[in-house]
Design goal:
The protein is of the alpha+beta class. It folds into four domains: 2-143, RlpA-like domain (Barwin-like endoglucanases, Beta Barrel); 176-293, Beta Barrel (Barwin-like endoglucanases); 337-434, 2-Layer Sandwich (Alpha-Beta Plaits); 445-528, Alpha-Beta Plaits. The chain contains ten helices and 20 strands. The protein has helices at residues 2-23, 102-108, 134-143, 247-253, 279-290, 351-363, 392-400, 436-440, 468-480, 505-517, and strands spanning 32-37, 59-61, 70-75, 81-88, 96-100, 116-124, 176-182, 204-206, 215-220, 226-233, 241-245, 261-269, 337-348, 369-374, 377-385, 407-414, 457-465, 486-491, 494-502, 524-528. The protein has a six-stranded mixed barrel. Strands 7-11-8-10-9-12 form a six-stranded mixed barrel. It starts with a helix and ends with a strand.
Length: 529
């Protein structure tokens, strides 16, 4: 009798505790911690809710969130996000808050690491009951004469079919969403595109979208942290980002540790002082438009009247009456173009990577390297030959120079640039193919930058070794082949070998590709210091 009463009491306590957890505000539940992913042996087996686990699906295990909850999981280290549906009880290791499928872990880019620090954001709640101890939960409901809630509705990644929407922080209306990063400390004291001096303690930002002196409210989508900034520079220079924040603003928005974060941007007041980019062309157009009115316009780089001081949470600033640029710039004469044949070496979704590839080609002797951007793709070419046959020697020279996968394509360039530079003919001698070490990477030790201890940097982990001597041998091999800033780090009994230290993750990704070409597969981009 005593045992039966104890069991009933335990069941009631469980239901009370579960109801209490559901009633808690989301901010009081654990929404940041370590994520792992399922082992391969679980593929095809049943979850605690009776569903079949599939590694290719987008599901997850949680002990806190009900079955059917839709969660956005963000990798704090790289800002990548994915949506998953809770359908299992776990994780069963201390210190973990969620177990993901391999598909989700791949999208978050932590397969090689095995785990990652993540933030969770509830996209859609569910009332289909807990993932753990479902038998006891269902038994107690039946005893109380209550019906068992139906299974959650069907769902596909990126959608929310029915259910109540729960968001950790109300998002501003009329917002723009994208990735934000922040200035490196080495830029402190330098001039911005508008002629101001960048001050890392001020609440400012770089934007290509918003006019100079716009006041923006920036909300970290994951944490809900907010900051308010004034736009006074042109940037960012990575196409996948919409804002560069000052260090003070990044700290208030909670993105210092991650380096980048997904944010919502709301306009508090739109600037009236022209664009942050191409201010020379804007100033010229403004002078032409206002010359008849005998009005003095701003010169390139000249700042308007003193800008308002933004504290991160201050009130809306005053609106200046500086004349705005005309809606349409003076029509320029059409530039004559010509069709030529170039040898395509590569194509990038990030224009900065394409520009770097052009610089690398020119360093190796291909002086006629250039890039053409069409939509979101930037293609890198070498040569401007009048016919496809005339482009063949250039293609051969590229193959000898370490670029075997090239293709001849017809491209359109300004007529003034159409004069061909040929490789293997009289005009220009083909560049001497680099030695294998030079082809992989040409080191410039004298150009190695100095970093501040507070800088957030990215590097490439080449390997992890139990033998310190083995790690040092790999490091010496990398240095002999010319790879930059090679170093080792020992934690416990494992010594890791790294190459490169960069402010931007994209630069480390480029080095990772070079390492792969040089015979170092399985590398990974990591935060380093």
């Amino acid at each position: 009798m005593y045992t039966k009463q104890k069991t009933i009491l335990n069941n009631r306590l469980f239901l009370i505790l579960f109801a209490f957890v559901l009633a808690l505000p989301l901010s009081s539940q654990q929404l940041e911690g370590i994520a792992t992913f399922y082992g391969d042996r679980f593929d095809g087996k049943l979850t605690s809710t009776g569903e079949v686990f599939l590694h290719k699906g987008y599901t997850a295990a949680s002990k806190d969130l009900p079955w059917g909850t839709i969660v956005e999981v963000t990798n704090v280290a790289n800002g990548k996000s994915v949506q998953v549906r809770i359908n299992d009880c776990g994780p069963h290791l201390k210190g973990r808050i969620i177990d993901l499928t391999k598909a989700a872990a791949t999208d978050l880019d932590f397969i090689k690491q095995g785990e990652a620090k993540v933030s969770l954001r509830i996209i859609r709640s569910s009332d289909s009951g807990p993932t753990c101890s479902r038998g006891a939960w269902a038994k107690q409901l039946r005893k109380e004469g209550k019906s068992i809630p139906p299974p959650p509705p069907a769902w596909t990644p990126g959608s929310t079919n029915g259910g109540s929407t729960v968001v950790t922080t109300p998002l501003p209306t009329g917002t723009v969403e994208g990735m934000a990063s922040y200035y490196a400390d080495r830029l402190n004291g330098r001039s911005t595109s508008t002629g101001e001096t960048y001050d890392l303690t001020k609440f400012t930002a770089a934007s290509k979208l918003y006019p100079y002196n716009s006041i923006l409210e920036v909300t970290n989508v994951v944490s809900g942290a907010k900051t308010r900034v004034r736009v006074n520079d042109c940037g960012p220079h990575y196409e996948d980002r919409i804002l560069d924040l000052s260090r003070a603003a990044a700290k208030q928005a909670g993105i210092l540790e991650a380096g980048v974060a997904r944010v919502h941007v709301r306009v508090v007041s739109m600037g009236q002082d022209g664009p942050t980019c191409d201010r020379g062309a804007w100033a010229k157009a403004q002078r032409e438009a206002t010359s008849q009115a005998n009005t003095t316009a701003l010169s390139p780089g000249q700042a308007p009247p003193p800008a308002p001081t933004v504290t991160g949470e201050g009130s809306a600033p005053a609106t200046y009456q500086t004349p705005a640029p005309p809606n349409t710039a003076p029509a320029s004469a059409a530039v004559p173009t010509a069709e030529v044949y170039g040898v395509q070496v590569a194509a990038f979704g990030n224009r900065a990577n394409a520009i770097q590839a052009v610089a690398d080609l020119k360093e190796k002797g291909f002086t006629d390297a250039y890039t053409i951007t069409d939509g979101k793709i930037s293609r890198v070419y070498v040569g401007k030959a009048p016919t496809a046959e005339d482009a063949a020697p250039t293609k051969q020279a590229l193959t000898k120079g370490g670029y075997p996968k090239t293709v001849v394509k017809k491209v359109r360039v300004p007529a003034s640039d159409a004069a061909p530079v040929t490789y293997g003919q009289a005009a220009v001698a083909p560049p001497t193919p680099a030695t294998p070490a030079e082809t992989q990477y040409t080191a410039k030790p004298t150009d190695a930058p100095t970093f501040d201890p507070s800088d957030i940097l990215f590097g490439v982990q080449v390997g992890a070794y139990k033998s310190k001597a083995g790690a040092e041998k790999v490091a010496k091999d990398l240095e002999a082949k010319g790879f930059p800033m090679v170093f080792t780090a020992t934690v416990g009994k494992v010594t890791r070998v790294f190459a490169g230290k960069y402010y931007f993750q994209g630069q480390a990704e480029d080095l990772k590709d070079k390492l792969s070409e040089a015979g170092y597969p399985g590398t990974s981009v990591r935060r380093v210091q």
